[in-house]
Amino acid sequence: MYLFFFALLFIIYQYMNEKTIFESQEKKINALTAQVSEKDSIADVLTDKVAELDYFTLLGNENAMSYFDNLALDAEEAQGLVSEAIYESNFGDGQNPLVPIESQDAKMRFNKVRFLNHRWVLADFTDGNYWGEVLIDYFFDENNQLLLTPMSATLYPN
Fold first, then answer.
1. Is 149 left (phi over 0), alpha (psi -120 to 50) or beta?
2. pTM recorded for the entire structure
3. Residues 133 and 124 sit within 8 Å (Cβ to Cβ)
4. pLDDT (tens digit per residue) in 74-100
5. What is the 3 state secondary structure string of 101-125?
6. What sign has the CA pseudo-torsion 17, 20, 25, 26?
7. What is the crossing angle of helices 75-88 and 62-70, to 10°?
8. Order of strands across the sheet with 131-140?
């Protein structure tokens, strides 16, 4: 009888212990599942945001890409040519021809270039003391020669 009673208590103890462990593990699984779903929703939001921001780029805009396809140019190659031409203007003598603002201290040099579409580039420039941005119009003529024209510029106050 004592053996039966002891076995019954042992079985109840084991049942309660296993039930507690099972509930604890289930809570952990639910918490991790919630974290994963939260990360998935954040990833979805970020993906949507990147797609939205990528629209105003040369390589993210289908209309801009088809413009270069009609010229028999690769959009990435054209982007490289334009960027190279803009950065090469940093090495000339005198004022930078693509920056319509003259510097009193030194020559204005480009730091960053961002393509908006198949016609416009936004470029950041500085002379070390003053910073600004310029909107540059670029165009490939019938001989695929690159023409760069500064449209508008702004200088930030010190």
1. beta
2. 0.69
3. yes
4. 889 999 999 999 999 988 777 888 998
5. CCCCCCCCEEEEEEECCCCEEEEEE
6. positive
7. 90
8. 109-115, 120-126, 131-140, 146-156
